[in-house]
Design goal:
Helices cover 17% and strands 25% of the residues. It contains three helices and eight strands. The strands form two sheets. Strands 1-2-5-4 form a four-stranded mixed sheet. Strands 3-6-7-8 form a four-stranded antiparallel sheet. The longest helix is centred in the middle third of the chain and has 15 residues.
Amino acid sequence: MIETNRIEFKRELTRDLDIEKEVVAFLNYREGGIIYIGVDDAGKPVGVQDIDGDMLAIKNRLRDNILPSPMGLFDVTVERIEGVPVIKVFVSSGSEKPYLQKAVWSLPDRLLYVCRDSLRMASGRREPPRKNNFHPENYPENYPKEINHCSENYPRIFGSASLCNSAEYGS
């Protein structure tokens, strides 16, 4: 097994592992993706020490740190690879794009991540403030004037019209 644009390996779940960033990228990607916890970068299973605790931590972190709610769009299960139990996080492509990671720092804004090949990257723009709904078509008046619309439904928040108009963004 190798890493691809739809498969990510993580050796272990730690506080420093930004699993929310990976999940947000897959939610915003047209095909979703899979994250394996307990697999090293070479694709070799190394296992997970506290499977139940890590599975619960993953579910809680995703529920609490992603907007709009990703509930129902991911599944956290145990899978055996070469006889070694690892955690598999299956992430579907979201229908309420864009998905955002709540800011980890004490900033009032949020970061948007997109999946580009096997790279997860910040969009380069901070999301502008929103009313009470996370659908871009519901609040285009809140976007700064320099952000042009790529289509009727989605604002240009990537800084690149070609990416925004691509199937990866869901338009």
